[in-house]
Design goal:
The protein has about 240 residues and is α+β, with helices and mostly antiparallel strands. Helices cover about 15% and strands about 40% of the residues. The protein has a 6-stranded antiparallel beta barrel with strand order 2-3-7-6-5-8. It has a 4-stranded antiparallel β-sheet with strand order 9-10-15-14, with helices on one face. It has a 3-stranded antiparallel β-sheet with strand order 11-12-13.
Length: about 240
Amino acid sequence: MTQLLFREDAYLRSATAQVVAVGERGIELDRTLFYPLGGGQAGDSGVLKRDGAAPVPITDTRKGDGPDTVLHLPGAGADLPAPGETVTLEVEWERRYRLMKLHTALHLLSCVVTAPVTGGNIVPDKARLDFDIDLSALNAEHIERETNALIARAVDTETLWITDAQLDAQPDLVKTMSVQPPRGHGRVRLLRIPGIDLQPCGGTHVANIGEIGGIRVVRIRSEGKRNKRVEIVLKAD
């Protein structure tokens, strides 16, 4: 298992770790601050710095085969570290921070559009949610205005943990139809935005929703009978 430092502190930009394994699929470390692709959120990129050797660029981060294992994908032609070597991880912060803002914004969007969520995706320049709703019920101006009104409340976010059994007893907490929270580890991570939202989520988020700064709805379209897509960008873009 990899110790997932981002779960406790999404603002951590640098940390040391020991190389556990190096293979064709990537580099495994004993701990990481890099978020692996999952739950619709893109994986982190950055660099592994080494003593007396060239740094290793990390172009993407993916989940490994075991529970809470993370694979760091090196750039082509990189001089790879050896198992047992100590490296310094540095996440590509500006990219990560944009992902944090957009991911948290989608939580707010899911409170404005009150319909089952059928899919979602977060990349550094945009994010979207798909809803099982009639297209005529989606109004870009309304969604943008109401989401930004929530952002303006500048509420602190909170991380909570509940047991698998507690989640099973509260099925309404799960809004996403396409991605179910992982079970089997004994506990499930929740993101709470007091007075606004509470749902299972393993992604990275801002500490206060005011940090998002605002969003713009750039597109609403149909992606099938049960998928109506709302795409957003950060207001500053």
